[in-house]
Amino acid sequence: MARAEPPLGRQPATVTRNAEKAAVSEFREPTIEPLDDQQPEDRALRPQRLGEMIGQQDVHERLSIAIDAARKRSEPLGHILLDGPPGLGKTTFATCIPHELGTSLQIASGAALAAPKDLLPYLSNASAGSVLFVDEIHRLPIAVEEFLYPAMEDFRIDITLGDGMSARTINMPLQPFTLVGATTRAGLISAPLRDRFVIREHLDYYTVPELSHIVVRSAGKLEMPMDDETAAEIARRSRGTPRLANNRLRWVRDYSTSRAGGTVDLEVARTALEMQGIDELGLDGFDRRYLETLQRVFAGGPAGIEAIAHTMSAAVDTLEDDVEPFLLRYELIIRTPRGRRLTDRGLEHLGTAPPAGPQRKLF
Question: What is the pTM of this model?
Answer without folding.
Answer: 0.83
